[in-house]
Amino acid sequence: VESAALEREEAAATATFNIGSVLSTPYKAVFPASIYKDENTVTLPAYQTYKAGSFAETASPMAAVSETSTLQFSHLCAVLKLTVNAGEEHNSIKYVDFYAKGGEQISGDFTLDYETLSLTGASTADADKKVRYNVSKTLGQEPFVMYIVVPAQAYKEGYTVKVLDREGH
Questions:
Q1: Where would you tag: which of 10, 14, 74, 132 has the fewest CB atoms within 10 A of its CB?
Q2: How far, in Å, CA of 163 to CA of 1, rounded?
Q3: Cβ proximity of 131 and 97 under 8 Å
């Protein structure tokens, strides 16, 4: 059951969800609602968009489970901070691709374990093995910082971050 839209202050640490139905325990919840596919499946976006000083709101999924009406949400993903400096020949960023060298799933459908609040990949599609972070920015003199959200997991062979500028370099 989707709650009414949240009304919150910018730096609020709590929120009240208003549900128009009678629910039974345990209460299981995901945020944002857009990632919900079914009771045990969430879908992580294959595309994220740059937001100054943070990550895109829809890119950081959270989940909670409780026997009471108080839910404490936990982040399901990790946040990768990436800092890029402009070069003499390269002074723009069009997008950034993140993918695991071991083929781990990065986007698409994941099974959500509410007991451990963790994700397990549920797709073998090649399209779900990366996330594209759309930036479209001209770089200045200061280092350019961006935050990419990826599943919190061990990347057994590491990962690759590919930064592409507007000229295709």
A1: 10
A2: 39
A3: yes
Kind and range of the H or E element at 79? strand 77-84
Average pLDDT, the chain: 90
Task: Provide the token pair at 153.
Answer: 């997991």
Residue with tokens 């093995």: 129
Return all residues near 36 (Cβ < 8 A) that are at least 6 apart. 2, 30, 42
Range with the lowest mean pLDDT among 10-19, 29-38, 121-130, 158-167?
10-19
**Cα distance between residue 19 and residue 71, in whole Å:** 13
- DSSP annotation of 128: G
How wide is the angle at C-alpha 76 spanned by C-alphas 71 and 79, nearest 5°? Answer: 125
Q: Tokens 């919190």 sit at which residue?
A: 152
Single out the residue of 35, 70, 46 nearest to residue 130, CA to CA.
46
- pLDDT, position 8: 66
